[in-house]
């Protein structure tokens, strides 16, 4: 048993099914939960966009507020620090004489570098950093292949994983936490983070609000109150309204809910209302999320390179400022693209169908360097997840995991198929 430990929260802002938190409680007399606003997350990227835009930052602040409230019901709370994690975390270790820091394990390049720097500084203080894999449906250790041998084609990955691996049970929720005195939560304002508050447009599919409580409420609504899950496969390509898809992605991105918890709830749902293609399809989508995470573990920096994980270059490396501006502001020659881009700009969200179309348009019709599109999404999306975002963009640019090579969407046909009555375009293109 160690005397004092830190739990460093990152994108695992929940108390339900949180192995990191439970291990810390089990191994320590006292724990201090901490969240560090990493200054690097609020800088401008080399592509000219903010790394974190106002919609996502607002969602993060709400999620932290909720996490603090949850922790306080258990006798703890959340300590907030701002700066570089490799400076701030060791400072707290010294302040609380902590012998160990517990944290979520990272897979993407920048996050791994941050983790390494923190580990190096903690080593100097004779403090250990222990990490746990808490973001995926399937645990990396349970996969039927090593990370370096994971198939690059999703279907091959899915079939073998479904056949040979089990999904672990979610962890239970802690009932009590021993913590030192933690003063009331002090969150920075958006202004302090260099951002201007945006109000989500009233036409948004959902008025997203961060936090584990909201995530559980959304799940309950989508599953048990409306039984929308039973028709998910048929409706998931919708574009207007709250319930054409689960909309879990913003909460999943910050770890306000875990994929394994969702899976356990799907099993409960199936017992009550029956299993069908739709209940399976949500698991299928969670598997895509896993796949991109494991791909990032396998390829590390490659998903951020222009040529992606391929060797031959396919789309242009050029950037036309005028075209970029038209795309961002929804003033392109395509009304379908414009409606989607305005929805993103004014709400921080876009349907899956919309994302595929605007990315295809960016890479194929505008023939621009796909990474600028991915970087704009990184700034704007409430549900930005590094692996899903960059993995999907690389896929659509033809430099990722698409076995068919260059994927090209016929935008007019897509608009006719998915917005037959133009209700989506009317919603966003009439002021």
TrEMBL record:
<dbReference type="Pfam" id="PF03441">
    <property type="entry name" value="FAD_binding_7"/>
</dbReference>
<comment type="similarity">
    <text>Belongs to the DNA photolyase class-1 family.</text>
</comment>
<dbReference type="InterPro" id="IPR036155">
    <property type="entry name" value="Crypto/Photolyase_N_sf"/>
</dbReference>
<keyword id="KW-0157">Chromophore</keyword>
<dbReference type="InterPro" id="IPR006050">
    <property type="entry name" value="DNA_photolyase_N"/>
</dbReference>
<feature type="domain" description="Photolyase/cryptochrome alpha/beta">
    <location>
        <begin position="3"/>
        <end position="137"/>
    </location>
</feature>
<dbReference type="InterPro" id="IPR005101">
    <property type="entry name" value="Cryptochr/Photolyase_FAD-bd"/>
</dbReference>
<dbReference type="InterPro" id="IPR014133">
    <property type="entry name" value="Cry_DASH"/>
</dbReference>
<protein>
    <recommendedName>
        <fullName>Cryptochrome DASH</fullName>
    </recommendedName>
</protein>
<dbReference type="Pfam" id="PF00875">
    <property type="entry name" value="DNA_photolyase"/>
</dbReference>
<dbReference type="InterPro" id="IPR002081">
    <property type="entry name" value="Cryptochrome/DNA_photolyase_1"/>
</dbReference>
<keyword id="KW-0274">FAD</keyword>
<dbReference type="InterPro" id="IPR036134">
    <property type="entry name" value="Crypto/Photolyase_FAD-like_sf"/>
</dbReference>
<dbReference type="InterPro" id="IPR014729">
    <property type="entry name" value="Rossmann-like_a/b/a_fold"/>
</dbReference>
<keyword id="KW-0285">Flavoprotein</keyword>
<comment type="function">
    <text>May have a photoreceptor function.</text>
</comment>
């Amino acid at each position: 048993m160690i005397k004092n430990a830190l739990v460093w929260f990152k994108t695992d802002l929940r108390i339900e099914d949180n192995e990191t938190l439970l291990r810390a409680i089990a191994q320590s007399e006292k724990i201090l939960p901490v969240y560090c606003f990493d200054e690097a997350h609020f800088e401008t990227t080399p592509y000219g966009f903010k790394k974190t835009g106002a919609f996502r930052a607002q969602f993060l602040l709400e999620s932290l507020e909720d996490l603090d409230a949850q922790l306080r019901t258990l006798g703890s709370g959340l300590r907030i620090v701002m700066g570089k994690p490799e400076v701030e975390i060791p400072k707290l270790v010294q302040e609380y004489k902590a012998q160990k820091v517990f944290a979520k394990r990272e897979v993407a390049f920048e996050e791994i570098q941050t983790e390494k720097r923190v580990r190096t500084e903690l080593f100097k203080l004779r403090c250990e950093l222990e990490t746990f894999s808490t973001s995926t449906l399937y645990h990396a250790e349970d996969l039927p292949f090593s990370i370096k041998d994971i198939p690059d084609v999703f279907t091959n990955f899915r079939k073998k994983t479904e056949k040979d691996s089990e999904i672990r049970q979610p962890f239970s929720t802690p009932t009590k936490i021993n913590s030192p005195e933690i003063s009331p939560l002090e969150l920075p304002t958006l202004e302090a983070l260099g951002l201007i508050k945006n109000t989500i447009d009233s036409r948004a599919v959902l008025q997203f609000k961060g936090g584990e409580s909201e995530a559980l409420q959304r799940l309950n609504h989508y599953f048990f109150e409306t039984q929308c899950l039973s028709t998910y496969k048929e409706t998931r390509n919708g574009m207007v309204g709250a319930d054409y898809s689960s909309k879990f992605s913003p909460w999943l991105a910050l770890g306000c809910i875990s994929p394994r918890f969702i899976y356990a709830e799907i099993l409960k749902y199936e017992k009550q209302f029956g299993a069908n293609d739709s209940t399976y399809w949500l698991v299928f989508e969670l598997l895509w999320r896993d796949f991109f995470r494991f791909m990032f573990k396998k390829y590390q920096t490659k998903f951020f390179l222009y040529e992606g994980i391929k060797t031959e270059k396919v789309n242009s490396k050029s950037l036309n400022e005028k075209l970029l501006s038209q795309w961002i502001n929804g003033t392109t020659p395509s009304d379908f693209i414009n409606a989607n881009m305005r929805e993103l700009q004014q709400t921080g969200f876009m349907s899956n169908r919309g994302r595929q179309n605007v990315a295809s348009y960016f890479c194929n019709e505008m023939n621009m360097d796909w990474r600028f599109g991915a970087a704009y999404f990184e700034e704007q999306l409430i549900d930005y997840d590094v692996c899903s975002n960059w993995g999907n963009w690389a896929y659509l640019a033809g430099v990722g995991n698409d076995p068919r090579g260059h994927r090209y969407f016929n935008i007019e046909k897509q608009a006719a198929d998915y917005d037959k009555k133009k209700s989506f375009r009317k919603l966003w293109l009439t002021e």
